Amino acid sequence: MNPPSPQDSHAHIHSEDSLKKLVNRLSRLEGHIRGIKTMVQENRPCPDVLIQVAAVRGGLDRVARIILDEHLSECITRAAAEGNIEEEIEALKTALDRFVV
Q1: Are residues 88 and 76 in contact, defined by beta-carbon separation less than 8 angstroms?
Q2: What ranges in the chain are assigned the alpha helix state H?
Q3: Which of 36, 75, 70 lies closest to 53, judged by CA?
Q4: Which among 2, 23, 29, 68 is placed 20 to 30 Å from 13, CA to CA?
């Protein structure tokens, strides 16, 4: 994961178990994307390729859901306790505006 940027209000730290699960999921998706690239290079049927693209899209959605769940349960809770919940909610809204198109 990238280090927090200067405008980040805090560094998000995943638990070791959570980080391992996220990295494993992303590694599987990375391999899946390489497989799709190979399918395209081999001129495999478009419907077959589209099915695999849909599978990757679903996998990315699951990764995003895990990250969102952790953010809501950890970061938002912490921000509420620290008294800066409005700032954290605005940052989340900005991210969701880009995510949900």
Answers
A1: yes
A2: 16-41, 46-70, 76-82, 85-99
A3: 36
A4: 29
Identify the band that residue 79 occupies on the pLDDT scale cut at 50, 70 and 90. Answer: confident
Token representation of residue 14: 């995943």
Tokens (6 digits) for 61: 């959605």
Q: Which amino acid is at 8?
A: D
Instruction: Tell me what the pLDDT averaged over the chain comes to.
Output: 86
The residues, any chain, with a CB within 8 Å of residue 84's CB and separated by 6 or more, are 9
**Contacts of 64 by beta carbon, 8 Å cutoff, 6+ apart:** 99
pLDDT category, 10, cuts 50, 70, 90? low
